[in-house]
């Protein structure tokens, strides 16, 4: 069903030039992802996973092809419009957490809400709720340096969901975490997908992490590989 | 606009560095205020000069005296209303460090020609009636704790008494000049008293008159009167140079060199040095925050917001430093006024100096912040996120 499709990619091509050599990172990729789905993007290094994630997240632009998210063609948005769209529609979770070291957990989570019309009190309320959801209500006044890696990533997830975006893009969210923390983060992402209906696209190298996704998309040398649709038995499942 | 909290917290990421930069700026702005204020003092006499007064001096030098006989000739020139003699006395009170200005003058004419000099204590009649009497400025009276009726012993530098004793002047009044062209640290006494002492051999010193001050009739043509005076004495015995009071004051300022250039060079150098230091701080801060800028942009913050974030940090840093410097300058105003004393009478931080300090602060803030702010604005999200911050 066309309405069920959140992400539609057609003929997507992206090249980079490094040291005078042109690398085709994505090659005429076509893919559709459904609203409410949990997708894992897998593939060897250099297969174009992160590039694809960046293009879908609107922080990079394709050379050719079409990226349509929720019916919006990203190629037709200028930089300011793209920034506004990102603020409203996408939540990012990075491998290295990328929290502001000078801000507390609460302030970090509140950051995307500064782009909304909410009052300060409302922003604080929303940010506190998001931290509660990720189980860090008691750490909201701690700075990133005072948190463990797992806790930092959960703060980053709270920041990603605080504006209630349709799409959450996670780039190796467990890459820098120990097994226990990674498990907690994956459980959290599963919960967001199942209970809050968030569409999640997660890049991972880790087959165990990919187990929590309902669909695993394999990329190889910028081209689409096999797609596994599965009944997740992983964390939280 | 970027959230102020983020600007503030990023600025305090390296507290010591921020503090040292702000402190350097505070010192620079303080120095700028002091130097500018010295210049204001020097120029205040020029600005407050009267347009209806001309100064007649020797065309050779201020230290060459004019004949007494010139006074009568000057009084007869059309357009001249009043003539006052001024003779530099060059003495000091008790010891050389208590040096101040003294002038032998035509005391009755002095108050007519200089209406800005107002007696705040004592009486003109008392002053006019006693040849040994003098009037002193209000600042001087405060400094030496002198009152009307006290005797002011002055050791004559240019006109020493032959008995080796100081000149004893009785203070008949204390004046206050409402304009800065007349210093409130000066002593005025009877020119006739000095002349008689010289004639009787009670004192030694040059004869003649240092300068004549002419007050012009209303509507008189200053240029024409000046030309007439100089033409009248072109044949000697002393040729004259007649200038407006403002030109005469400017000549005094230029005697100690090109002060505005000197002060401007030092002030400019200090500001450029502090600009470079602040720019360096901001460039380092921008580099450390590259990844944060990428995160902000990824979250949806616009290029203009990150531009504001960097520029805001620069403005805040320089603002804190600049305000600190200004506060130090204002709070030390009295201290410097006393320290500089008669060398720079009337030292104060003028409103225009405050405005200049604020403009300099803003300018440094903008110039130091604009480069990192533009870089942050231009930075792509991916490049910023990939940086090793």
Could you explain the architecture of this structure?
The complex is a heterodimer of chains A (237) and B (389). By secondary structure, chain A is of the alpha/beta class. Chain A has seven helices and ten strands. Chain A has helices spanning 49-56, 79-89, 105-110, 120-133, 149-161, 179-195, 207-210; strands spanning 5-18, 21-34, 38-42, 64-69, 72-73, 90-93, 167-171, 199-203, 215-220, 223-229. In chain A, a hairpin with a 2-residue loop joins strand 1 (5-18) and strand 2. The longest helix of chain A is centred in the last third of the chain and has 17 residues, at 179-195. With 389 residues, chain B is of the alpha+beta class. Chain B is 54% helix and 17% strand. Chain B has helices at residues 4-11, 15-47, 70-75, 107-113, 124-129, 138-144, 191-200, 222-232, 245-255, 259-288, 290-299, 303-331, 333-340, 351-378, 381-386, and strands at residues 53-58, 80-88, 92-93, 101-105, 117-122, 133-137, 151-155, 167-177, 186-190, 211-216, 240-244. In chain B, strands 1, 2, 3, 4, 5, 6, 7, 8, 9, 10 and 11 form an eleven-stranded mixed sheet that branches. Chain B is elongated. The model of chain B has no long low-confidence stretch (mean pLDDT 86). The A-B interface holds A 54, 57, 59-60, 79-80, 83-88, 92, 94, 98, 100-103, 107, 111-112, 114-115, 159 and B 3, 5-6, 9-10, 12-13, 291-292, 294-303, 381-382, 385.
